[in-house]
Amino acid sequence: MNDKFFNLPLEKQQRIINAAYKVFSQSSYKKAPMSEIADESGISKALLFHYFTNKKELYLYLWINAIEMTRKAVREYKTLETNDFFEMLKRSLLSKCSLMRDYPHMYAFSLRAYYETASEIKSAIQENFSDVSKTSEMIVFEKMDTSRLRKDIDLKTMYDEIFYAIDGYMLKKYRSNRIIPDEIELEIISLIDFWKKVYTQKEA
Amino acid sequence: MNDKFFNLPLEKQQRIINAAYKVFSQSSYKKAPMSEIADESGISKALLFHYFTNKKELYLYLWINAIEMTRKAVREYKTLETNDFFEMLKRSLLSKCSLMRDYPHMYAFSLRAYYETASEIKSAIQENFSDVSKTSEMIVFEKMDTSRLRKDIDLKTMYDEIFYAIDGYMLKKYRSNRIIPDEIELEIISLIDFWKKVYTQKEA
DNA sequence: TCTGTATTAACCGATACGGTTAACGAGGAG
DNA sequence: CTCCTCGTTAACCGTATCGGTTAATACAGA
Fold first, then answer.
1. Closest of B41, B58, B40 to residue B49, by C-alpha
2. Alpha-carbon torsion (B39, B40, B43, B46), positive or negative
3. Which residues neighbour strand C (beta carbon < 7 Å)?
4. Which of A31, A124, A188, B170 is most open to solvent, judged by the fewest CB atoms within 10 Å of its CB?
5. Do B111 and A175 touch (CB under 8 A)?
6. Chain B contact set for A175 (CB, 8 A)
7. Which residue among A152, A167, A194 places its CB closest to the CB of B171?
């Protein structure tokens, strides 16, 4: 890619890569047209190719960028610097909401990219991600304090179920085109509070 | 559409409409090509047009068909003939699993079709569905016996959260291309048992 | 051998694709 | 005023793909 991209005003950079995240999150790699990204970001297709030489390079840049920014946000929110499970959950999701304010479609893009099948990019993606989700899951389980949690339920099922619900919640938001970070943040927090109440051991 | 379609051997009919459900569930209406459906079902594109005159008609047939079959399955499983919430949930999901055996991609298709934006079909779809989900939600809330449920949690949140989780779970299955009804049925049942344990009031 | 029917290869015009090129236009330097 | 730079794009290129059609094939039964 062309480094001059980074000399652009930040707002324009974001407009471009947000358009790209959006288009690539709504269609598969093969069916997502560069022209749509150009139109969506208000620049010409020629300029898009000027900065990102071709489709594949743009896609891989978006992928690397998404991983980096997610890691950074998780770190900034000190997600793993607590052993309270629900506090971890809250920090993790608040960090994602803060990302969503700048890059509304990055979450959906990542979810889709991970399962992308186009041969041209599949290899590059899997190698760069290995098993981040599994690794972080392990870290969470090692760190978390289970003493306050209900003893009669399976923690792995609880963990899976919560993340299914978050994905399902976000899916609905994307499908109905309601990506409003403030609203999502409030609703997510209320979901977490709900889970905390449900899964916390009652005092004797 | 051409009624001769129904004279085809049932297996061939299913192969064709399953191919269509699959292709339309993976791309938006506009970007889902008829040729892909023909290839996937092992017939020629010409024959596909012979039976379903054009793309729009095929899509609407799939939609009507999905609604009808879902209703029928829900009825056959006597989903609403109990007032135990978790029993309702189980019957509802088992009915969907049984449908999944014959039409693996129908669930994903319905989810996508509901939010389809293509002007040519949007109107036809919304009118045929009005607010089935909201209506059935109301029926469930009126019918269900809340006496055994925990008193300290909000039932609407519980209801939403469960359905988010199911959608999230199915999303993962579709994205990772693991549509194995037996496996899904087992895992769903174990999830429901989990929820039942979590949300049921402890005996005094 | 004739007839009707299921099926498709080949085709059609239109459009959309990824990517390129030649030129435009504003702004600064001489 | 001229020249040059550089961000930017309209217009273009060859190819692929789209929805849909047509003319022909294969084959059954009478």
1. B58
2. negative
3. A 32-36, 45-46, 49, 53-56; B 4, 7-8, 12, 43-47, 50
4. A124
5. yes
6. 111-112, 114-115
7. A167
How many contiguous H segments (helices) and E segments (strands) does chain B have? 10, 0
- Is pTM beyond 0.90? Reply is yes
pLDDT tens track for A137-192: 888 898 999 999 999 999 999 999 999 999 999 999 999 999 999 999 999 999 99
Residues of A in contact with B166 (CB under 8 A): 164, 168
Structural domains of chain A in order of their starting residue, each with its CATH number: 3-199 (1.10.357.10)
